[in-house]
Structure formats: C-alpha cells, structure tokens
Design goal:
The protein has 14 helices and no strands. The protein is mainly alpha-helical.
Length: about 325
C-alpha cells in the first residue's frame, strides 16, 4: 500500500468512527435527558416559579415541544444540530456554541498547561526511576506516584489552596482574574498567577500514570536482548539510555498521554469548581445543577469530540513515527 492510499484509508476510517460515535452519544444523551427528573420549565423559570401560573407553564412547555413524543423531539433536535444550531443556554441566555467557545478557551489554557507539565514531569520521573531500579530514587518515585494515584483531585486542590492561598498567601484563592477588573485590563502575568494553582493541581494528579507506565516500559527494555547486547559492546550511561531506551518507550508514553484527555477533562471539572475558574468544567456543573439541558447536551457532545481528537492525535503520531504500523495495516 502506497503512502497516499494508506492515509486516505486512515482518514476515511477515522471519519466513519467519529460519525458513529457522535450518533451513538447523541442518542444516548437524549435518552438520558428524556428520563431525567429535571423539569426544564422549572429550571428555566427558577426562583420566579411561584409567580408563574399552571397555564403559563403549559404554554412554555408547548412552545418548547415538550408534549411531543421523544422520537419527534429527537428528530427536531438532531435536525437543528446538523445545521450547527446547538440551541440556546437557559442559564446564560446565549447560543450554546458561543458559551462553549468562550469557556473552552479558558479551559484550554488550564488543560494545556497541566497536560504538558504532567507529561514531561511524569516521563522524566519514570525514566529516572526505571534506570535507577531498586534505588532510593526508585522507591521514592513509586511511593509518590502510588500516593497520588489514590488522591482525589478535589482534595489535593483544597490542600494546595489552604497552603499557598490561605497560609502563605502566595496565590489567589480562585477566579481567572482579579475581581472587579475588566477583561481588557487584566495582564498576562495576572492570568498566569490565577492559573497557577488549578494547573498545578491537575499536573500533580496526572503525573502518576505516565511515570509508572514509563518506568515499567523502561524495565522491559532493560531486560531485552538488544539492551544486554549493547551492554556487552561496552555502551554505558546516557548514550545507552538515549539510543536503546528513550526511543522505545517514547511512543507508548505519547499514546498514553493523549489517551488521558478524558481524565484531563474530568479533572478540570473538579479543579475549576474548587477554584471558581470560569471554564467549561464549571459551566458543566452549572448546567447539570440548574437543568440547562441544551448546554449540557452541547458540552457532552463537545467533550466526546475532544476525547476523540486526543486518541486520533495519538494514532497519527504513531503512524508518522512508527513505519511498522503501516506495514501491519497494509
């Protein structure tokens, strides 16, 4: 199979999977919403519920088509979705697409920073621990990772907030900018200062998986025949590690890091809620608690697309870096 045929087949296959995934997620989400105990009219009216008469409630429900059968409502919602209309948020009174775009840009800075730091730090710790197998460094890294793997993100966030914001007063308690200040007046340094603790929380939690996985892969490489052969030829030190170790453990580490997009998104929901960070995670919690069904459906679809993009990026990197993958799929 030539180069163009391989990539054409690769892109067509991934596009078909994406369509099936979004269709399945849409049907499942709509089924959940139909069986949800949340009353959309009550969630929309909110505290003014006592001022709304039963006739007015019925008129609102009829206007939204809530008395129609679920297949009819799903067909109407799916038709609007295919035209790019995700509906209007009941909380923000704005199109769902605008709310997701604005909130995702804020979350992107948080998740991108945490993803990069956790990947680099986890890979470095895993290599260090694996290469020094059985040493005090190895035991310390394993203890650190196993402890973090059992640590909830919200608990760690509260602990960091108490230490750095309350006791030491080095970082803000929350928000993405100083309160009472216009967005145009907020400097890059202030945004970075407010981003520090939420990003640190996500980074520390994300280190454990990549570090333990990298350590285990390096141990397998160090027990392989080509590693022992290189030792017999007199190769030592960093040159041996770079030539025969890092090249073989980098791909699994990259794949695992991209596959953690789902955990990263889930962790950002908790971190944003703890630090009142106005990102997509906090919008998800607000939509769930206040019954904003259009926004909740839009965020759920977007999160599925986000996680799929991470897995797709890992597959593309694999296909670009490892020529054996092309040979297998040919």
């Amino acid at each position: 199979m030539n180069h163009y045929a391989f990539w054409s087949r690769f892109i067509a296959g991934r596009a078909a999977r994406l369509v099936v995934l979004l269709a399945a997620v849409s049907v499942f989400l709509f089924w959940l919403v139909c069986h949800s105990p949340i009353d959309p009219v009550q969630a929309y009216v909110g505290a003014d519920m006592l001022r709304v008469s039963p006739e007015q409630r019925q008129q609102i429900a009829a206007r939204w088509g809530l008395y129609d059968p679920p297949p009819v409502r799903f067909a109407r919602w799916a038709g609007a979705l295919l035209q790019g209309d995700l509906g209007t948020s009941l909380i923000f009174r704005r199109p769902v697409a605008e709310v997701i775009k604005e909130r995702f840009l804020a979350s992107l800075a948080l998740m991108g920073t945490a993803w990069l730091i956790s990947g680099l730090l986890g890979f470095g710790l895993g290599v260090w621990a694996g290469y020094r197998r059985g040493s005090a460094v190895d035991r310390a890294v394993k203890w650190y990772c196993l402890t973090l793997a059992a640590t909830p993100a919200f608990w760690l966030g509260l602990l960091l907030m108490m230490v750095f914001s309350v006791w030491l007063q080095l970082t803000p308690i929350g928000l993405a900018a100083p309160p009472g200040q216009l967005a145009a007046q907020v400097t890059f340094g202030q945004r970075l200062h407010h981003l520090l603790l939420p990003a640190l929380t996500l980074s520390i939690v994300g280190v454990a998986n990549i570090a333990l996985h990298t350590r285990q892969k390096l141990l397998e490489v160090m027990e392989s025949d080509y590693w022992l052969f290189a030792l017999a030829r007199g190769e030592r030190g960093f040159a041996l590690l770079r030539r025969h170790g890092l090249r073989n453990i980098a791909l699994p580490a990259i794949s695992l890091q991209f596959a953690q997009f789902s955990e990263l998104f889930g962790g950002s929901i908790l971190a944003e809620q703890i630090f009142s960070y106005p990102g997509l995670g906090q919008a998800t919690v607000q939509a769930g608690l206040r019954g904003d069904v259009p926004l909740l459906l839009g965020i759920a679809l977007f999160s599925a697309l986000f996680v799929y993009a991470g897995n797709l990026a890992a597959d593309i990197i694999y296909a670009l870096v490892d020529p054996r993958l092309k040979a297998v799929r040919a």
